[in-house]
Design a protein that fits this description.
Length: 426
Amino acid sequence: MGRSEELFEQAVKVLPGGVNSPVRAYRAVGMAPRFITKADGPFIWDEDGEKYIDYVCSWGPMILGHNHPVIREAVERAVKDGLSFGAPTRREVEIARLMTELVPNIEMVRMVNSGTEAVMSAVRLARGATGRDKIIKFEGCYHGHSDCLLVNAGSSALAGGHPSSAGVPEDIVKHTLTAQFNDLSSVEELLNAWPGQIACIIVEPVAANMGVVNPAPGFLEGLRKLCDESGALLIFDEVITGFRLALGGAQEYFGVRADLVTFGKIIGGGMPVGAYCGSRALMEQVAPCGPVYQAGTLSGNPVAMAAGLAQLTYLKEHPQVYDHIAAKAKWLAEGMRQAVAETGAPVVVNQIGSLLSPFFTPTAVTRFVDAKGSDVTMYARYFQGMLERGVALAPAQFEAMFVSEAHGQAQLEATLMAVRATLAAL
Ligand SMILES: Cc1ncc(COP(=O)(O)O)c(C=O)c1O
Ligand SMILES: N[C@H](C=O)CCC(=O)O
């Protein structure tokens, strides 16, 4: 038994499922998780000293790769001044100014501690600002684990068989309406059924928690139009896409305006951070300016702000990162498709920017129902084969692969060799 297995045996006695976030338990791939000791550039190392090329990248924050010196040094400097003050600091102003400069259509930012908190607060703000209760989300999109959004959710909730969680009162869930991603008519039906009652439509502009599914041409534009007509606010949940698809996120990439935008992951540089953002008029509805209450003991934490500010500043000063990571992901996706053609494996590969996913199904994946049709047992075997060959993928089908600036040609080629060998052995 390796050290990871030994640790896991101890972990399950004191942590539910042995982990602090369900997907990490590797249940969807039928094995004990690797316990990680360190990470650097494109690599992670486990307790047994095994080294892997990492495409989880902490689920997205590590766009520059692990342990980037610019971020590490910013954190080291910040730590010397103290860990938390519960008072405003200069870096909170600097990062908010930078975000409003880089992201279209946002004038103000409220920092929180996770993507979940960001989305939960944005929905509260949408309800407070519109005076309406109902919200529309999309089946298979994941927006964190707040009560009103744990309905037909994606990611690990889907992989673990609990897309709608126990413990969420029916009285809350009745306000969450579910539409189909890439299907505007399903949204129109809900808007017509509940006229004047929808506070917001919340969407992952690229669905990345059912595997990666690109928005169909006109889908996001259609949502914008439906929101304008119905008075609902459009929320782009950019916890994954923010500062990843482009410096200005999905709004810039697709040229579609959202009313509220949520961020997480990249804006914290690896520290626990989230943010919700929008126009001054909307954001000044938030306490202490307005009646929508939201607060946080550790919000805007100085160390987290230092990490996020360093990462966003680096990205602003090196915008070529976006071309690099998108080109690498495209190269990988094309190579994977070629390997699929050579081996005859029933796999399709979706890719956009630096996000990609293989689905174990022979037909195109453009909707949730297609993604759900993927053979998860085959994915599990693929995952195991890749791990044995030194490549760490998301331990569940309904997740994304993240490519970082640190992934070099040698790692990409090694990954494709592993893909070929693994697919051939399936
Ligand atoms: C699109 C999206 N929104 C929200 C969240 C929730 O973020 P967090 O896990 O930081 O709470 C996640 C990831 O977990 C996500 O992918
Ligand atoms: N898909 C999730 C975030 O994007 C995975 C992270 C988690 O749930 O721990």
